[in-house]
């Protein structure tokens, strides 16, 4: 009861804090997702239909990962530096309610732009997605896992280190992760690494639920993501509860 | 006593010992001032009470209950105004105060009623529905105070609530602080404003490098200074030698001024002495007035060169 009461009030608080950036965030997310969907085919005009499908369905994962790994940890890092996170932590509310509220607002900011970007991309290339209803939990899980990992890094490490590490991860996501290409293109040992990391799994669940007719539903990827999500959340929860 | 702090020591991981064996007790209905130089350890103390920092050793009890063991309870029992600005950009004062009141467990209607009263008492009406991102620093700090006061805990911790606030509203603020205590809260208030603290707190402690170097009511602390009056000399910048005080009491240099404690019965003598100094050109001007808490503070924490010392030491040194 107290949990729900606090959660509701904290969602209001965090949403109001971010409301001025809402239109900007929506625009950035839409353009970012769209940029990937439209950009790759521009760079490589010879791409076949299968490759375009791959890109259009992998783009939302990239987009959500970049928010979770760049915008979010940067914001949390700033809140730590300026002391506002300490203030929020001094409120008489369950930590769980605070984290849940903060993550809710983050997801609400991220997801609409991603969806819009995918839709525009589909229309542009005339892709006929036979979207599965599982797309809802899939997108939520990808966004939540990205956010939890970013949150965990930012709440655990000092600001400067957070920036460096998250930037490195983003480069890894863009250049060396099977989101816009298939894992089979990777060297075998790299494939093994990606079968453990959550990045490939993010691509698989978005892909498998947006276009299940093309890629099939990977249940294993859902499990991998769930494990990472719980891990990220657990680390964040512990870090937020820790007294200096 | 409602809030009982014993032998509290906090050493940061960097090795800084920010609190070093602090013991304080604050009762219901009491406004307790915490003074001390920058970096003395005031915020460190406050943050331990509200459960943001874990003490290295020592105990914090509210109503006999252990706050170090149960920081969740500490957060419920204490309302808190932080030294840093509150994160309410995007919210209006109305929204921010109402949200905090409800988060502290107040019923919506009660919270609104109390918010209206606070807004009026602090004269913030014209900003009630303005986005906090556009508020001035002082108004924002008053809103932060209102957030801490709308549904007060049994203990209210205020870390520099008067910063950036204009003189008229500072008075309104002090009145509300007193009101909190009148309703039974134990109020701990950090401030650098010694003059206002003298008028407004029941008791105070002066912190120096993590230690309490003096504690008592403003009158007690002034009494320990041993001088009812204060002679302030504005030194001539060209004068080579500081005039030696003939009263055997504290003489503390502060910039180009010299503060000298003067016993009540030596007032005439002091004026005559100062006149003669002015005549010889070693001072530019002087004033004689009642000693204030600021004199105690300066005597203790020291002016420019004088290191920190206990009142007794200052007095002894000057008596020698
Ligand atoms: N997180 C921290 N890690 C390491 N040292 C710290 C930390 N926070 C404060 N300190 C150090 O502890 C000492 C006390 O700091 P504190 O903030 O408690 O002082 P303060 O009395 O509140 O000062 P001010 O009047 O400037 O607000 C200072 O030397 C400060 O540098
Ligand atoms: Mg401070």
Task: Describe what this molecule looks like in 3D.
The complex is a heterodimer of chains A (244) and B (320). By secondary structure, chain A is an all-alpha fold. Chain A has one domain. Helix content of chain A is 82%, strand content 0%. Chain B has 320 residues and is an alpha/beta fold. In chain B, 36% of the residues lie in helices and 26% in strands. In chain B, strands 6-7-8-3-9-10 form a 6-stranded mixed sheet, with helices on both faces. A 4-stranded antiparallel sheet of chain B has the order 2-1-4-5, with helices on one face. In chain B, α3 (93-103) packs across α4 and α8 crosses α10. At the A-B interface, α1 and α4 of A face α2 and α3 of B. The site of magnesium ion (MG) has 4 residues of chain B, from α1. Residues 12, 14, 16, 18, 36, 38-44, 83 of chain B line the site of adenosine-5'-triphosphate.
Please give a handful of descriptors for the protein shown:
heterodimer; A: 244 residues; mainly alpha; B: 320 residues; alpha/beta; Rossmann fold; 2 domains; 6-stranded mixed β-sheet; 4-stranded antiparallel β-sheet; 11 helices; 14 strands; 36% helix; 26% strand; disordered C terminus; binds adenosine-5'-triphosphate; binds magnesium ion
Helix/strand class of chain B:
alpha/beta
Cα-based radius of gyration of chain A, to the nearest Å: 18 Å
Give Rg of chain B in angstroms. Answer: 22 Å
- Count of helical stretches of chain A: 11
Estimate nothing, just give the exact number of structural domains of chain B. Answer: 2
Q: Helicity range of the residues of chain A?
A: over 70%
Order of helices and strands of chain A: HHHHHHHHHHH
Largest sheet of chain B: 6 strands, mixed
- What oligomeric arrangement do these chains adopt? heterodimer
Estimate the global geometry of chain B from the Cα principal axes.
globular
What is the assigned CATH homologous superfamily of the largest domain in chain B? P-loop containing nucleotide triphosphate hydrolases
CATH class of the largest domain in chain B: Alpha Beta
Distance between the termini of chain A: 29 Å
């Amino acid at each position: 009861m107290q949990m729900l009461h606090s959660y509701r009030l904290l969602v209001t608080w965090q949403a109001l804090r971010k409301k001025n950036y809402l239109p900007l965030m929506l625009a950035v997310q839409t353009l970012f997702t769209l940029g990937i969907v439209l950009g790759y085919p521009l760079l490589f005009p010879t791409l076949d239909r299968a490759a375009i499908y791959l890109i259009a369905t992998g783009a939302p994962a990239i987009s959500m990962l970049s928010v979770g790994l760049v915008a979010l940890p940067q914001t949390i890092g700033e809140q730590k530096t300026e002391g506002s996170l300490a203030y929020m932590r001094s409120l008489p509310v369950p930590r769980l309610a605070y984290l849940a509220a903060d993550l809710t607002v983050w997801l609400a900011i991220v997801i609409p732009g991603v969806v819009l970007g995918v839709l525009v991309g589909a229309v542009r290339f005339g892709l006929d997605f036979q979207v599965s209803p599982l797309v809802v939990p899939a997108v939520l899980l990808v966004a939540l896992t990205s956010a939890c990992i970013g949150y965990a890094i930012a709440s655990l490490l000092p600001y400067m280190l957070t920036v460096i590490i998250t930037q490195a991860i983003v480069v890894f996501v863009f250049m060396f992760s099977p989101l816009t290409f298939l894992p089979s293109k990777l060297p075998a040992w790299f494939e093994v690494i990606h079968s453990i990391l959550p990045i490939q799994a993010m691509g698989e669940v978005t892909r498998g639920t947006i276009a299940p007719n093309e890629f099939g539903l990977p249940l294993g990827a859902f499990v991998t993501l769930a494990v990472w999500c719980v891990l990220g959340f657990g680390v964040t929860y512990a870090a937020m509860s820790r007294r200096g | 006593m409602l809030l009982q702090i014993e032998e509290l020591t906090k050493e940061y991981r960097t090795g800084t010992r920010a609190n070093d064996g602090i013991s304080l007790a604050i009762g219901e209905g009491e406004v307790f001032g915490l003074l001390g130089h920058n970096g003395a350890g005031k915020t460190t103390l406050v943050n331990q009470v509200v459960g943001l920092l874990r003490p290295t050793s020592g105990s914090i009890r509210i109503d006999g209950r252990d706050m170090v063991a149960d920081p969740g309870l500490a957060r419920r029992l204490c309302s808190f105004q932080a030294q840093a600005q509150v994160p309410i950009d995007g919210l209006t004062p109305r929204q921010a105060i109402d949200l905090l009141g409800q988060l502290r467990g107040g019923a919506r209607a009660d919270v609104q009623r109390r918010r209206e009263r606070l807004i009026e008492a602090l004269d913030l009406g014209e900003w009630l529905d303005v986005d906090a991102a556009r508020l001035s620093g002082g108004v924002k700090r008053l809103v932060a105070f209102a957030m801490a006061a709308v549904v007060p805990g049994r203990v209210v911790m205020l870390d520099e609530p008067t910063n950036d606030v204009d003189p008229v509203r500072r008075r309104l603020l002090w009145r509300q602080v007193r009101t909190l205590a009148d309703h039974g809260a134990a109020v701990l208030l950090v401030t650098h404003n010694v003059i206002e603290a003298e008028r407004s707190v029941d008791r105070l402690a002066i912190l120096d490098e993590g230690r309490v170097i003096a504690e008592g009511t403003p009158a007690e602390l002034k009494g320990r200074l041993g001088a009812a009056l204060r002679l302030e000399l504005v030194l001539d910048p060209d004068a080579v030698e500081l005039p030696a005080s003939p009263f055997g009491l504290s003489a503390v240099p502060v910039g180009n001024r010299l503060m000298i404690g003067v016993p009540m019965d030596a007032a005439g003598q002091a004026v005559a002495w100062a006149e003669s100094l002015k005549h010889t050109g070693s001072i530019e001007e002087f004033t004689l007035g009642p000693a204030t808490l600021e004199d105690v503070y300066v005597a203790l924490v020291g002016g420019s060169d004088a290191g920190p010392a206990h009142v007794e030491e200052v007095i002894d040194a000057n008596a020698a």
